Amino acid sequence: MELSILLKLKCLNLEMTFNLETVPEKLIYGFSRLQVLRMGWTGFDASRAINGNISFSRLECLECLKYLNALTITMCNDSALEGFLSSHRLQGCTEGLCIDRRRDDSLFSQKTLCLPPMKRLQYLSLESTSMEEVKIEWEEEGRKIQTPYVFQTSVIASKRNFYNLWMVYVSSCTNLEDITWIIWAPNLRNLTVSDCRRMKEIIKLKSIHRFAFSFPCLDVIEIVHCPKLRKIPLSRNSAKGRRIIIREAQQWWNELEWEDERMNPHGARFSRHSKFFKN
User: Fold this and answer.
1) For the whole model, what pTM was predicted?
2) Is 238 a member of any domain?
3) Is residue 14 part of a domain?
4) What are the protein's UniProt keywords (predicted)?
C-alpha cells in the first residue's frame, strides 16, 4: 500500500531512518490532516538546490500543514537551519531538533547558533557541528533578548521558554566552548556531552558552570572523554531527593574538585563504575 493513499493520516514517524534523504513534497502536501510528523535523526534535507539556488519549498510545505502540532526535524545544512529559524510556525510546534553535519561538514559555516524561544522543545541534539557558540533568546514584553554570560538565578527561574526541554545531546562539536545555556532548561533530565575537546565550561573543561544550579528533574548526567572537566554544577541540594548518575572513569573521579565537600563521592553509597548522588 502506498503512503499517498493514506489521505486521513494523522501521524507519520520517520525517526531514526538515517538513510532517508528525501520525502516527496507531493506526499507531504497530500497529508492535509497530519498532526504529528517525526523526522528527527534522519538524512532528510529540509532545503533543496534548484539551479544552484536554495529553495525552502520543503519547509514551506510543512508550514502548509495547518493541523500540525508536533514536529521533530533534522537540519543538515546552513540553508535548512536558516529557513527553520525564520519560521515561527514550525518553531512553535517543534518538539525535537537535531542539527547534524556528519554527512558533509562543508554544508555548515555558521559559528554561532541563536536559538529562539521554543516552548514545546523537548530534546535538542547537536552533532559534529563547527559552531563555536550557542546563544539562547528569551522574550520579555515583546522583545527578544540574548542571554548574558553571567546569569541571575531569579531571572532564570522566571523564564519558561525552554520549560519542556528534558534532553540535550552534544557530540563531536569540536569548536564549541561552553554549554552554560542549559540553565535555561529547568526540567532537564538527561545531559550527554562527548568529544567536545575545546569546551572551556564543559570540556577542556574546567567546570560546567561557575555556579551550582538546581535541576529538580535531572536524573542522568553522562560525561564521556572530558579529561579537563574538574567541576560540575551540583550542590547537595541539586538532587532534590532524586538519584543522579554520572558515568566516568575512576581516575577522573579522583581528580574532581568539590566546592561542597559533602558531595565528595568517596564512600559506600557509590558503585564501582558510576557515581550515584541521592539526598
Assistant:
1) 0.67
2) yes
3) no
4) Plant defense
